[in-house]
Design goal:
The protein is an alpha+beta fold and 679 residues long. Among the domains are: 161 residues, Tetratricopeptide repeat domain (Serine Threonine Protein Phosphatase 5, Tetratricopeptide repeat); 160 residues, Heat Shock Protein 90 (2-Layer Sandwich), CATH 3.30.565. It contains 25 helices and 7 strands. The strands form 2 sheets. Strands 2-4-5-7-6 form a 5-stranded mixed sheet. The chain has a two-stranded antiparallel ribbon with strand order 1-3. Helix 6 packs antiparallel against helix 7, helix 12 packs antiparallel against helix 13 and helix 14 packs antiparallel against helix 15. The N and C termini lie far apart (68 Å).
Length: 679
């Protein structure tokens, strides 16, 4: 784990130490004694906000409470920088609590204030913190974009502190994607900036993060060299939060070398500091996971289990996906070694599912795409600059020609012809630009289709297949007896049925996409289409003793794309079975109007609340829940059903309430009399 640097507040950068807190506390006490603890004294408000920041790694709730106190005073004060610090502090607080949306919301408010103040340093700091937040949330493309914007403003402000911080955070971003060469290039830039700063603590922070990267690469010699230097500095300067982190990194280095006893010594040193009033949840997750691995290496499985579970609980609490993945993987290894295969398989499924959700491979591609975009932007800037030089040169020639126009009128004719050629070229370039814009839209549409397909495959196929793979490995290796194998095979059968159902949906959807997403309506009998799907889903309904009645009028002929509406019916009936308990009832009905046929699929299932009804039809989401018998969703979701219905000039909606069942309605165009005669 590498520590992301937060950047600076409007009040400046300060390393967390007791002397700073004491100094600020005395300053605040002095203001109170003089009766200056009010909204008119912005220096008092600034001191409260600065003290709040100092409590981040000691008591994050004190950070919130002091910031809240300052915010109340700022209601009656004209102090924009104070408000900037308020929202910045809230962003840090909600980030540490794992409330990512609230963190993003408050950091954007801070950024807006910085833009209004036209303060390059504050803008760079807010963009850096916002980028860090997106990085914690796994959105690496947005993270990199905000880091690079922040870097531009940091250069404009000529502030080496924030330049060092942002370059180091970009290095960590690339390191997290295993782009170590690029990460080390950024660290070279950081090292040069740190020489100008001449701040031993800042240099030590960089060295400790470098040590973490060298540990990941496997270069433990370089890692140990850097971490020992940083530990010396932090011990001398008494910077305990970074010292705790550095001890943990040193323990991780020994783990990499297979020296578990030495690893435990340094990890215990780190734990002592964390237990002594430090409040850094992300650091604790990495520490507990490393302690678990170290104890597992020494054969202390009970302690290994306890620490891994502690780390997993904290990771869940702050919604750290990377932390949950690491701890779940460790628990899988522990229980497999203890031959507790049921719990091992459980944590293996958690690890596989979260790994897919994080989608690191997809984010790596996004980074590469963004690097390509940066290269293109640079080339475009160079082309614009060169064109401006040519235009300036041409303007000089025209000016010169005007001066000698009376005596050299003939010289103007070639210039006139040249200008006509330029206009023609401009028109051609404009046409080409329009063509490129159209192609860009087509590519965006293609990328959206690709992303949706990969999201479905990663979300709903890889998890069950990964679980099945783990089961088969245990059977082949002889880890499972016949009786245990038979019990897990039943679950595997359910997972395979789910995969088959999802594949059928993907193939149906894929045929539509191969047709360019076009709808090809034909005369189709909806009753027969429903009957075919009931035959297909009969086994699924029978497993839950669910009765399905098809009361759709047999003469319900519509002018629709048969493949698309077939996919809609299959998903809606499947969902009805999924959310209807055993011995339930599902009814299919139809109702004809002048121009449309309305289909109703009604169940006696668990129903849904208003919040769920708002989510299920939204585009670009894979909102799935487990059914009454823990059946998994198809992954394609109702958003695809909505897309198919709307392509067929219809509408789809749902009526539902918790524990009162659901009724899904959709309309499609009725076969007109002219088409009936033609057919």
């Amino acid at each position: 784990m590498i520590v992301l640097l937060s950047g600076q507040y409007a009040l400046g950068i300060s390393n967390i130490d007791q002397s700073t807190k004491d100094s600020l506390s005395l300053k605040i006490k002095s203001f109170k004694n003089k009766g200056l603890d009010n909204s008119e004294n912005t220096a008092y408000i600034d001191a409260v906000l600065a003290l709040a920041k100092e409590y981040r790694y000691y008591n994050v709730d004190s950070l919130y409470n002091l910031t809240r106190k300052a915010q109340k005073l700022l209601i009656h004060a004209d102090h924009p920088k104070g408000n900037y610090n308020v929202y910045f502090n809230y962003g840090v607080y909600y980030s540490d609590k794992g409330a990512f949306p609230k963190a993003i919301e408050n950091l954007n408010k801070a950024l807006d204030i910085a833009y209004n103040l036209d303060d390059d340093k504050l803008i760079a700091s807010a963009l850096n913190r916002l980028a860090s937040q997106y990085q914690y949330g796994g959105d690496y493309e947005k993270s990199l974009m905000n880091y690079l914007k922040g870097l531009d403003f940091a250069k404009k402000s000529q502030d080496n502190d924030i330049l060092s911080i942002i370059n180091e955070n970009i290095a960590h971003l690339y390191a997290s994607q295993q782009e170590y060469d690029i990460a080390l290039d950024f660290y070279k830039e950081v090292t040069e900036i740190n020489k100008k700063l001449n701040n031993p603590v800042v240099t030590a922070q960089t060295l400790s993060n470098l040590a973490s990267i060298y540990t990941e690469i496997g270069d433990t010699k370089q890692a140990m060299f850097h971490i020992n230097q940083s530990i010396n500095t932090f011990e001398q300067e008494e910077v305990y939060d970074w010292l705790a982190y550095s001890y943990s990194v040193k323990g991780e280095i020994y783990l990499k070398e297979g020296k578990e006893k030495w690893a435990l010594y340094w990890l215990d040193q780190s734990k002592l500091l964390y237990n002594n009033n430090l409040d850094d949840k992300r650091g604790e997750i990495a520490l507990y996971n490393n302690l678990s691995l170290a104890y597992m290496g020494t054969g202390s499985d009970s302690l290994a289990t306890d620490y891994a579970l502690k780390g997993l609980d904290i990771a869940k609490d702050i919604q750290s996906k990377e932390g949950q993945i690491d701890c779940a993987e460790t628990l899988y290894k522990i229980f497999k070694e203890k031959e507790d295969y049921k719990r091992a398989l459980c944590y293996h499924e958690i690890f596989t599912s979260l790994s897919d959700t994080l989608a690191k491979e997809s984010n790596t591609k996004s980074l590469k795409l963004f690097k390509t975009q940066l290269k293109y932007d640079q080339q475009k800037k160079e082309l614009i600059l060169e064109n401006e030089k040519k235009l300036a040169k041409q303007q000089n020639l025209i000016t010169l020609a005007l001066l000698v126009l009376i005596v050299l009128i003939a010289a103007a004719i070639p210039l006139y012809l040249n200008q006509k050629k330029l206009k023609k070229l401009y028109r051609e370039l404009k046409i080409q630009a329009a063509s490129l814009t159209e192609r860009e839209k087509e590519l965006e549409s293609s990328n959206t289709t690709k992303d949706k397909l990969f999201s479905i495959v990663g979300h709903d196929l890889r998890g069950p297949i990964g679980a099945l793979q783990g089961l088969l490995e245990m059977i082949i290796s002889g880890d499972l007896g016949q009786q245990e194998a038979n019990r897990f095979i039943r679950k595997a059968k359910t997972d395979v049925d789910h995969v088959l159902f999802t594949l059928n949906n993907i193939l149906s959807w894929g045929r539509t996409q191969l047709n360019g997403g076009n709808t090809r309506p034909t005369t189709t009998n909806i009753y027969k289409l429903a009957e075919n799907n009931l035959d297909f889903l009969d086994e699924m309904a029978a497993a839950k003793d669910i009765k399905i009645i098809n009361d759709i009028a047999k003469a319900s002929n519509a002018f629709i794309d048969e493949n698309q509406i077939d996919l809609v019916l299959r998903n809606l009936i499947s969902n009805a079975i999924k959310f209807t308990p055993n011995n339930g009832l599902i009814t299919l009905e139809s109702e004809e109007s002048l121009n449309h046929i309305q289909i109703k699929i009604k169940d006696t299932g668990v129903g849904m609340d208003n919040a769920t009804k708002e989510k299920i039809f939204k585009a670009n989401t894979n909102f799935t829940t487990y059914g009454t018998n823990n059946e998994k969703g198809t992954g394609l979701g109702l958003s695809l059903c909505k897309e198919m219905i709307e392509k067929n000039n219809g509408k789809i909606w749902v009526e539902s309430a918790p524990q009162k069942g659901s009724t899904f309605h959709f309309t499609v165009p009725k076969l007109s009399e002219n088409l009936k005669k033609a057919s």
